[in-house]
Specification:
4-stranded antiparallel β-sheet; 550 residues; 5-stranded mixed β-sheet; alpha+beta; 28 strands; Double Stranded RNA Binding Domain; 16 helices
């Protein structure tokens, strides 16, 4: 597999796949000897290892994929560096406090010089030594004057002067003004961050107020989504047809509901297929034109903020991006594409971008993943979260219906039962064809899984020992057996065992008399795929094999 190098904005190159020199994992990595930007500071990881641990990382001039460090190890290195800096700062503050306390107690420091005569009874005060002492004293006075001149007005000092002041100050006896200067400098970083946070909050507030004004005075349609199901923003009704969603949303009055719905929640996605003005009969299909219209004609106030929310033009079939007109078969694909335009939330560890702050926070947790199991007290099954545990107990043990029909008040134990209800009672056509191939599924979730696996090629689980990637972690676990030689899947009819479940299932058919596989050329039947393949090679060379079932 070829090594891919991507450049994250203002961060540095990301190598995928690469070998981490710290934990031996193979994944997305950064280069050890390259300078990266992290929250406004420059960092070189090989230098950080030397500063923190005194470790010299070798062979950094080799291939890029072999001189890397993964995001997890970068995080641990940053923590170690921050802890080292914390200890040094605390030690310096402790020593300064002790010295200040001693000066306050003693009042003044007296220096007593005792001159002993030489062994031959003559004085040691030769002329050359006296001259050297006078020169040294003169230099000390000049140095002291320089220090007082530099330290006298810390607020007007630039970075070079500050460094000069620190170099001029005698070690172990830092002047009080320089101590105050250090305190002032240490306060600058938090103040700068607080200012940035304040500006960010102001921008969010202006976007929030603009969104309320636009939705209240136009016919745009706010909505939420899950995969390709659209939810009414006001009452949470579900729709698969955008036209039905828009018609339903018109039954709600946004001036009564929208501000109440948006408070303490994230700004929704907005469908701008129809905009138009609610305050007059003006027909408008462009958002910028509408903003100009309500500010100039209706004298409403809008803050100077662009892209207050994510804009979509929802259609039943192919969906177009409102920014670049690219076309996508599913809303999930379009939403992922929107990150290219509005992915403002960036992970500092791996460079991944997200549309929302909540998505970034969830992603960051994956870098510090801790195995948390929530066992069921009834059957002992381990669940990955408290919610999964409650849902498991409710559906499996208490037999509570938790899946609601979005067209009536009926409730069901599973999605399969609800789908059957939608077909039999509401007349829904519960078939979901893939728009990129000829596959057809009876569940939307199954269709999306097929799309991600076969067309988007979302293989997130990579083998640590080779370049192969897999869609499911279970497939990766089976693949690892090819490296270890383990054969954990044993046949119940004989003593044979296999490293993969699929191989075992194929073998079990040899114990069955049912011949499910049929040759399309001569109608011969077989129990195993391997037998059919061997038959095609030996009897029908040149024909393309299509596995069928008799």
């Amino acid at each position: 597999m070829a090594t891919q190098v991507s450049t994250s904005t203002n961060k540095g190159p990301i190598i995928d796949p690469a070998f981490c020199r710290c934990c031996r994992s193979i994944k997305k990595c950064r280069l050890l000897s390259t300078e990266y930007d992290w929250r406004g500071t420059k960092e070189v990881y090989s230098d950080m290892f030397m500063d923190v641990f005194g470790l010299l990382i070798s062979h950094l001039d080799g291939e890029a994929k072999d001189t890397c460090i993964c995001a997890t190890c970068v995080g641990r290195l940053r923590e170690a560096s921050a802890f080292r800096q914390q200890v040094l700062t605390c030690e310096e503050m402790f020593l300064n406090a002790r010295m200040q306390s001693k000066e306050d107690t003693d009042g003044s420091v007296k220096v007593e010089v005792k001159i002993e005569p030489s062994s031959d009874g003559e004085s040691n005060d030769d002329l050359p030594l006296v001259q050297n002492d006078e020169n040294r004293i003169s230099e000390d006075k000049e140095e002291q004057l320089k220090r007082e001149e530099v330290i006298s007005s810390p607020k007007k000092m630039d970075a070079k002067q500050i460094i000069k002041a620190k170099k001029l100050s005698p070690k172990g006896n830092k002047p009080q003004r320089l101590v105050k200067l250090d305190r002032m400098l240490s306060q600058k970083a938090p103040l700068k961050k607080a200012k940035e946070d304040s500006e960010d909050r102001d921008t969010q507030y202006m976007a929030y107020k603009n969104t309320i004004t636009i939705v209240n005075n136009s016919y745009v349609c706010p909505f939420h989504n899950r995969i390709s199901i659209y939810y009414c923003y006001y009452c949470k009704d579900q729709f698969t047809n955008p036209n039905e969603l828009r018609e339903h949303t018109l039954t709600h009055n946004p001036k009564e509901l929208f501000k109440m719905s948006i408070e303490n929640k994230k700004i929704p996605k907005i469908d701008i297929t129809r905009i138009d003005c609610r305050l007059c009969t003006e027909k408008i299909d462009d958002l910028d034109t509408f903003k100009e219209h309500i500010t100039s004609v209706h004298k409403l106030m809008l803050f100077p903020v662009k892209n207050e929310f994510l804009k979509f033009r929802l259609t039943q079939n192919n969906l177009s991006c409102t920014e670049c007109n690219s076309v996508f078969p599913y809303f999930d694909s379009l939403k992922k594409h929107m990150i290219d335009h509005f992915g403002t939330y960036t992970c500092d560890m791996c460079g991944a971008c997200f549309l929302e702050d909540a998505s970034l926070r969830t992603h960051i947790k994956s870098h510090y993943k801790v195995e948390m199991n929530f066992p069921c007290e009834i059957c002992g099954k381990n669940l990955k979260s408290k919610y999964s545990k409650r849902l498991h107990v409710a559906t499996v043990h208490e037999k509570k219906a938790t899946v609601n029909c979005y067209k009536c008040d009926a409730c069901f134990l599973s999605y399969a039962l609800r789908n059957r209800h939608l077909i039999e009672v509401h007349g829904d056509n519960r078939t979901f064809p893939c728009k990129l191939c000829d596959k057809v599924y009876n569940r939307r979730k199954t269709l999306m899984e097929h799309h991600r696996r076969n067309h988007l090629k979302v293989f997130r689980h990579q083998c640590d020992l080779c370049d192969q990637r897999f869609y499911l972690p279970s497939r990766l676990k089976e693949h690892m057996a090819t490296h270890t030689g383990e054969k954990n899947f044993r046949c119940e009819f004989c003593d044979k065992s296999y490293p993969r479940l699929q191989s075992l299932q194929e073998h079990i058919r040899s114990h069955s008399t049912e011949r499910r596989l049929k040759c399309d050329v001569c109608n011969s039947t077989f129990t195993q795929t391997s037998s059919l393949k061997n038959h095609m090679k030996s009897h029908h060379q040149g024909f393309q094999m299509e596995v069928g079932f008799s």
